């Protein structure tokens, strides 16, 4: 009986080598893919809802400048009359009278009060001396624009006395003139101008206030 020939032995060197090479290539591909994915992830901004928002670059709206003071606002306050000149008709004689001493308050609500505490205006004409003496007060409503003061609703109390050559000629209740005044007001100086005269006043400041 013939013997069964032995099975030839297979050489596994080449397949093993090829498998190793393929495995190495696969590892390189995987590593490269992972690296690419990692780099791609880092290149994109993180979508994190808790991240601090970027500060706003919008500028706040500019503040409006304060409104310019109206000329009539200068009137508001207390004033002392330091000079008064007027031409007045007294018993048929035109007399230039001068004086001072009235106190005037212009309020922001459109009212004014004039206090006349023994205020004397006097002058001479045609050889005689004349005096007009006011004691009392006068309340008015006023409306002022940039140049003119208009008056209304007079409420007067007190008396006006006329003297000629030192003798009392008459005493009557104080009466108000509602003719408008033109005015100029700057700081602490106020001038009033009427058809027949002019008044200069100084603002009354609290004690210790710089002039």
pLDDT averaged over residues: 78
Give helix and strand order, one letter per element, not per position: HEEEEEEEEEE
The CATH class of the domain at 74-203: Mainly Beta
Known CATH architecture of the domain at 74-203: Beta Barrel
Helix content: 10-25%
Class from secondary-structure proportions: mainly beta
Distance between the termini: 149 Å
What shape does the CA trace take?
globular
Tell me the total number of β-strands. 10
Multimerization state: single chain
Largest β sheet strand count, sense and barrel closure = 10 strands, antiparallel
Compute the CA-based radius of gyration.
Answer: 51 Å
Poorly predicted spans: 1-53
Descriptive terms for the model:
about 15% helix; 10 strands; Lipocalin; about 210 residues
Question: What does the model show?
Answer:
The protein has 211 residues and is mainly β. It has a domain at 74-203: Lipocalin (Beta Barrel), CATH 2.40.128. It has one helix and ten strands, in the order αββββββββββ. It has one helix at 13-43; strands spanning 77-90, 93-99, 103-106, 111-125, 128-144, 148-164, 167-173, 181-186, 189-193, 197-203. Strands 1, 2, 3, 4, 5, 6, 7, 8, 9 and 10 form a ten-stranded antiparallel sheet that branches. β6 (148-164) and β7 form a beta hairpin. The protein starts with 12 loop residues before the first helix and ends in an 8-residue tail after the last strand. 13% of the residues are buried. The model is unreliable at 1-53 (pLDDT under 50).
């Amino acid at each position: 009986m013939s013997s069964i020939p032995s099975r030839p032995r297979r050489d596994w060197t080449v397949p093993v080598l090829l498998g190793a090479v393929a495995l190495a290539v696969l590892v390189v591909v995987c590593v490269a893919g992972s690296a690419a994915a990692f780099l791609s992830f880092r290149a994109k901004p993180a979508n994190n809802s808790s991240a601090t928002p970027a500060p706003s670059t919008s500028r706040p709206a500019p503040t409006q400048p304060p409104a310019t003071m109206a000329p009539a606002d200068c009137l508001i306050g207390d004033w002392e009359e330091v000079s008064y000149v007027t031409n007045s008709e007294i018993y048929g004689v035109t007399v230039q009278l001068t004086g001072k001493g009235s106190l005037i308050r212009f309020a922001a609500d459109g009212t004014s009060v004039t206090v006349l505490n023994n205020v004397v205006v006097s002058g001479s004409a045609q050889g005689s001396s004349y005096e007009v003496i006011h004691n009392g007060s006068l309340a008015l409503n006023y409306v002022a624009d940039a140049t003119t003061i208009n008056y209304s609703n007079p409420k007067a109390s007190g008396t006006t006395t006329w003297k000629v050559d030192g003798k009392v000629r008459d005493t009557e209740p104080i009466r108000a003139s509602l003719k408008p005044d033109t005015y100029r007001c700057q700081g602490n100086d106020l001038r009033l101008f009427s058809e027949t005269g002019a008044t200069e006043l100084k603002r009354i400041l609290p004690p210790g206030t710089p002039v």
